Amino acid sequence: MKTVGLSLRSLSSFPRQRCFARNHVCAFSALMSPPSTAVVYDQHGPPDKVTRLVEIPPVEIKQNEVCVKMLAAPINPSDINRIEGVYPVRPQPPAVGGYEGVGQVHAVGSSVNTLSPGDWVIPSPPSFGTWQTYIVKEETVWHKINKHTPMEYAATVTVNPLTAFRMLQDFVQLNSGDAIVQNAATSIVGQCIIQLARHQGVGSINIIRDRAGADQVKENLKKLGADEVFTESQLEKKNVKDLLGSLSEPALGFNCVGGNAATLVLKFLRNGGTMVTYGGMSKKPITVSTSSFIFKFILVCVRCSNEIFFHPLQDLSLRGFWLQKWMSTDRAKECRNMIDHLLDLMCDGKLKYE
């Protein structure tokens, strides 16, 4: 059988080990994982055409390794993109699918001292190959979490909630009473932004697409803490800032759609505001009007002798964010601390998915 995946190894050279004592030979079996079932792809392409289920034989658990029984692993759009071969960072096939998930420690190597059988763990940073029933990887890959965490949150905390958390921290200093604006508000990132912003005392303006059941969607988002929710057609008017009510003009906006939906985010931003793009669901480019670039900045009047000069203080800023790039720096401890913080909020019911 052909073995595939990132943690799979040929067992031909590890069938049995021997120890010698008092001129006697005693044989003992290496610590082995159970056989596993994995979702594998041998080439890039449409997931329904290139993936298949594969039975994987046991592998040896070395002294610094941990065998984890996966409990849940989500299907993220980026997982699909990796299989298709269009995501910037991806394993080379043949490979096991999946990038995040939660599991329970099944067995540990002799040198492992931070984890024990029964512990719940997640790969942190996320790790390729989570779509299999048992995974054997080094102890340092796994982060122990509270096993009372709802499984669906434990399995998904390392990508979408962490993206929301970082974007609220990294671009603009937000204070209580400030506001943000975003499209794709029904996405998991969008829902987390609403709740994490509210936790900071920051209001949110949320844009959703026109669709059947939009009123129910608005109600659900407001239950999560959204201040205002608008469909795209509601924002076709020229001056959308009339819709702000008691909210401040947003200094920060989030775009995950592109096209016209990105333009709507820009229309809400105050002078000198920042829009962060972290996705492109519509597959349409971001277009910025000439007036936004020319007039969306603050002018400061400076008198010099008998002449008056006007200088831009801060221009409209367009930024991008990719969590994997953020995690590629040496931030493992910081990342795990944030994950623990987010999981605490989830366990307390302060961060949830609709």
Automatic annotation (TrEMBL):
BP GO annotations: fatty acid biosynthetic process
Keywords annotated in UniProt: Fatty acid biosynthesis, Fatty acid metabolism, Lipid biosynthesis, Lipid metabolism, Mitochondrion, NADP, Oxidoreductase, Transit peptide
Statement: the UniProt record of this protein carries the keyword Lipid biosynthesis: yes
Cross-referenced InterPro entries: ADH-like_C (IPR013149), ADH-like_N (IPR013154), ER (IPR020843), GroES-like_sf (IPR011032), Mito_Enoyl-ACP_Reductase (IPR051034), NAD(P)-bd_dom_sf (IPR036291)
Enzyme Commission designation: 1.3.1.104
SMART domains: PKS_ER
Locations listed in the record: Mitochondrion
A Pfam family that the UniProt record links to this protein: ADH_zinc_N
Any Gene Ontology CC annotation: mitochondrion
Catalytic activity: a 2,3-saturated acyl-[ACP] + NADP(+) = a (2E)-enoyl-[ACP] + NADPH + H(+)
Enzyme class (EC, first level): oxidoreductase
Domain Enoyl reductase (ER): 45-277
SUPFAM superfamilies in alphabetical order: GroES-like, NAD(P)-binding Rossmann-fold domains
Sequence similarity: Belongs to the zinc-containing alcohol dehydrogenase family. Quinone oxidoreductase subfamily.
Designated name of the protein: Enoyl-[acyl-carrier-protein] reductase, mitochondrial
